[in-house]
TrEMBL record:
<dbReference type="InterPro" id="IPR003188">
    <property type="entry name" value="PTS_IIA_lac/cel"/>
</dbReference>
<dbReference type="Pfam" id="PF02255">
    <property type="entry name" value="PTS_IIA"/>
</dbReference>
<keyword id="KW-0598">Phosphotransferase system</keyword>
<feature type="modified residue" description="Phosphohistidine; by HPr">
    <location>
        <position position="82"/>
    </location>
</feature>
<keyword id="KW-0808">Transferase</keyword>
<protein>
    <submittedName>
        <fullName>PTS system cellobiose-specific IIA component</fullName>
    </submittedName>
</protein>
<keyword id="KW-0762">Sugar transport</keyword>
<keyword id="KW-0813">Transport</keyword>
<dbReference type="InterPro" id="IPR036542">
    <property type="entry name" value="PTS_IIA_lac/cel_sf"/>
</dbReference>
Length: 119
């Protein structure tokens, strides 16, 4: 396979990763907005959607990594590195958002149950 074909393949995969990771970030932000409105069911639904976007991005990345373990080489690519960095960052944001939604739901249940009395 010639270098230009490999470059194009890597660019295409990098763009898929960035696209899906970006969709995950939007879904995560929507989940946090719903959490502000105490819509925990809606927030959890958005987090599930975000996780599916991350799965798609991770799958695209994994294909390249598996190709390299089988001996297929790719030239260094700043765009692919950026895509991987974007994916890792948004995965961290999603993990943190999951914890935040869970925490706020626990607090809401506690304060709804005892009328806000923290004794």
């Amino acid at each position: 396979m010639d270098k230009q074909v490999q470059d194009n393949e890597l660019v295409e995969v990098a763009m898929q990763i960035i696209l899906h990771a970006g969709d995950a970030r939007m879904k995560t932000e929507e989940a946090l907005e719903q959490t502000k409105n105490f819509d925990f069911a809606g927030a959890k639904e958005k987090l599930v959607e975000a996780k599916e976007c991350i799965r798609k991005a991770h799958h695209a990345q994994t294909q390249i990594i598996q190709d390299e373990t089988r001996g297929k080489t790719y030239p260094p690519s700043l765009l692919f590195n950026h895509a991987q960095d974007t994916l890792m960052t948004i995965m961290s944001e999603l993990n943190l958002a999951n914890s935040m939604v869970e925490l706020f739901e626990i607090l809401d249940k506690k304060y709804s149950k005892d009328g806000g009395n923290n004794e």
